[in-house]
């Protein structure tokens, strides 16, 4: 997974935030989080949904029964940074409650049906995390 992420990160940075392959045309950001246990910076490419000036990200992990590591990192250290296009933005992460989550999650599934597929693969509620500009 690390090599796969590294290749996407390199392509993202070389092409002003655009990548090809399965993410071609999709809104993608690079999420910089602090490791919950290690304290080291981690960078993950993540699809997002713009919500006003902020960014909703989805802890889908392709429908796995566990949340992705970056989710745990953000819960432990909510101050993070994102790269969107050529811009780097400081953000604060907040897991949305059920009421806030629902319309954003439904819109994501409607626009990107793969997220609906992820939901059918797991019994967990896939968290939606709002990244608010600081």
List keywords for this structure.
134 residues, alpha+beta, 6-stranded antiparallel β-barrel, 31% helix, globular
Q: What do these coordinates show?
A:
The model has no long low-confidence stretch (mean pLDDT 96). The N and C termini lie far apart (30 Å). This protein has a 6-stranded antiparallel β-barrel. With 134 residues, the chain is of the alpha+beta class. The chain contains 4 helices and 6 strands, in the order H-E-E-E-H-E-E-H-H-E.
Question: How many strands, what sense, and barrel or not for the largest sheet?
Answer: 6 strands, antiparallel, barrel
Radius of gyration: 14 Å
The helix/strand class is: alpha+beta
Quick one: overall form? globular
What is the strand tally?
6
Sequence of strands across the biggest β-sheet:
1-2-3-6-5-4
Helix segment tally: 4
Name the average pLDDT.
96
- DSSP strand (E) fraction? 25-35%
Fraction of residues in helix: 25-40%
H and E string: HEEEHEEHHE
Low-confidence stretches: none
Gap from first CA to last CA: 30 Å
SSE map:
Elements: H1 2-14, E1 28-34, E2 41-51, E3 54-58, H2 69-76, E4 79-84, E5 87-95, H3 98-111, H4 114-120, E6 128-133
Antiparallel strand pairs: 1-2, 1-4, 2-3, 3-6, 4-5, 5-6
């Amino acid at each position: 997974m690390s090599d796969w992420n590294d290749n996407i990160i390199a392509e993202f940075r070389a092409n002003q935030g655009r990548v090809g392959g399965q993410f071609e045309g999709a809104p993608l950001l690079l999420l910089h989080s602090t490791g919950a246990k290690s304290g080291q910076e981690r960078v993950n490419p993540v699809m997002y949904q713009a919500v006003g000036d902020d960014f909703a990200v989805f802890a889908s992990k392709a429908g796995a029964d566990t949340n992705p590591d970056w989710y745990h990192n953000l819960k432990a250290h909510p101050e993070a940074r994102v790269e969107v296009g050529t811009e780097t933005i400081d953000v604060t992460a907040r897991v949305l409650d059920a009421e806030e989550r629902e319309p954003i999650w439904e819109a994501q599934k409607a626009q990107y049906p793969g997220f609906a597929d992820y939901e059918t693969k797991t019994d967990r509620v896939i968290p939606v995390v709002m990244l608010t500009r600081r």
